[in-house]
Design a protein that fits this description.
Layout (H helix, E strand, L loop, with lengths): L2 H28 L4 H26 L2 H27 L2 H9 L1 H13 L5 H18 L6 H24 L5 H22 L9 H26 L8
Helix pairs in contact: 1-9, 2-3, 2-8, 2-9, 3-7, 3-8, 4-6, 4-7, 5-7, 8-9
């Protein structure tokens, strides 16, 4: 594999590792702070972190690009909402395993939605990934309902990745990432207000999780992921 093809994949592996490392930190924060308030503040931080670098690109987007960014952001919001709700009810290891199943779902969803051809080698990679997840985490345990929520999250995440394969090559990565983060912020703020979960974060456990997930796993992580998906397929991602 050439360096130009390997770099995006290694970058995505690094981002995925950061996402996985935040599970325990988020679970600890949710014991002290309401779920949708956490997600609202998290994506507010992501949006603010990206705004100085992305605003000009957002203004230059055509209407179709804005619609694409908001639509992909809605899928991302569904993925995070289901995953974080499930994490409150099930174990970290189960969350990690079931979330990892997006690698199985992504080629199927890309094929169903966009008729994306999936090379045979990718199917071999999917099988190896599932086997590796089983070896690392074991079979899922914890709450059945919590596991079901995380499974819904994995499906939404797979759809988001498939959609990004279609739109990331067409539009600026900064603009698409910013629109995804702000869509999540608006969605989770509306839910938090409706549920009466509006509350000021307090304590290092909560703020630490918010800053790590907002800046590194959110703004930076999804900017890298969007850049990568303009250079590779959904199945590889």
């Amino acid at each position: 594999m050439s360096r130009s093809r390997a770099l995006p994949l290694f970058a995505l592996v690094g981002v995925t590792a950061v996402w996985g490392l935040t599970f325990v930190q988020v679970q600890d924060a949710l014991a002290l702070y309401p779920l949708f308030a956490f997600l609202s503040v998290r994506f507010a931080i992501s949006s603010v972190a990206l705004a100085p670098f992305a605003w000009g690109s957002v203004r230059a987007l055509p209407r179709e690009g804005v619609v694409a960014g908001v639509g992909v952001g809605a899928l991302l919001a569904a993925a995070y909402g289901f995953q974080t709700a499930g994490l409150e009810l099930t174990t970290v290891s189960s969350t990690g395993f079931i979330t990892g199943l997006y690698v199985v779902f992504t080629p199927f969803i890309a094929l169903a939605l966009f008729r994306t051809r999936v090379p045979r080698v990718v199917w071999v990679g999917v099988a190896c990934a599932v086997a590796g997840l089983l070896l690392l985490n074991g079979a899922p345990g914890g709450s059945t309902f919590g596991n079901a929520l995380v499974l819904a999250s994995a499906l939404a995440a797979a759809a988001q990745i498939a959609a990004m394969e279609r739109y990331a090559p067409r539009y600026d990565a900064r603009a698409l990432t910013f629109l995804q983060m702000t869509t999540c912020f608006v969605a989770f703020t509306a839910i938090a207000v409706a549920l009466g979960e509006v509350e000021i974060p307090r304590g290092w456990t909560v703020w630490g999780a918010l800053l790590v997930t907002g800046v590194f796993a959110g703004a930076l992580g999804y900017l890298i992921a969007t850049w990568v998906q303009a250079r590779t397929t959904a199945a590889r991602a």
